[in-house]
Amino acid sequence: MRPEGTGIEVGLGQPGRAAAGAAAPLLAVTGLCRAFGGVRAVWNVSFTVAPGEIVGLIGPNGSGKTTVFNLVAGALAPDAGAITFDGRTITHLTPDRRNGLGIARTYQHVRCLPHLSATDNVAVAGLYGARPASSTAQARRLAGALLERVGLGWAGGVPAGRLTVAERKRLEVARALATHPRLLLLDEPLAGLNPAEAAAALDLFAGIRDEGTTLMIVEHNVGAVRSICGRVVVLNSGQTIAEGTPDAVLADARVMEVYLGERAPA
After folding, report:
1. pLDDT beneath 50, residues of the chain
2. Closest Cα partner for 65 from 57, 56, 73?
3. What residues form DSSP beta bridges with 32?
4. What's 27-258's CATH class?
């Protein structure tokens, strides 16, 4: 995607397509384990994400979802297991190296530079990642284009700390996109949003996928997961208990009991 007049590519790759069954995975997690003291936060978790997918990672609080994201992004090192990205083993790469290969993320609790303008928040990110800007001026032009892309074109000069929760979440998405990701990890992106804001965010995420970025989403909003995710992985107590289409997974007896708080009919 090239916003008119910017001369800067905002999207990555070609428009996304539904992942083909034979497509090689973009991300592959195999036997991933991480414990904190005697607590097994993630234990023997395996899954793949194909190019062009939107994959949901769901489960009750404390099930290990954010820990998985931290392991994939490199904020944590696994005790065991392997992570490959586009066929390359990245298990022990630093977060900046992974970002340089095309992995970006947002956070459950929005992280921004509150005293800097929205433009400067995004421009800083544009100096890193898979295709770093060659100058501050280029990074600021990219930032302007991305703020327009996420619906914050009016907020370029506004300090990030003055934005609403929904606006700061969009700002964080723009910051992640500034690093030119191939895989974007979204950690509870709808938390704290009202229904209209959540619907707008889902439209944004679908558009980002259609522009060529693969997405993985941690989210508690079951309706949102059902509407946007083609496939879902469910964790409980750090282990995978179900995987498949949203309709199939959300009808699974174990998922109904541990995640939705319901017992399947006898």
Report:
1. 1-21
2. 57
3. 45
4. alpha beta
Closest CA to 17 of 228, 210, 225: 210
Report pLDDT for 20. 41
Are 260 and 254 contacting, i.e. CB atoms less than 8 angstroms apart? no
Write down the pTM of the prediction: 0.89
Q: Domain coordinates of the chain in residue numbers?
A: 27-258
The pLDDT value recorded for residue 262 is: 61
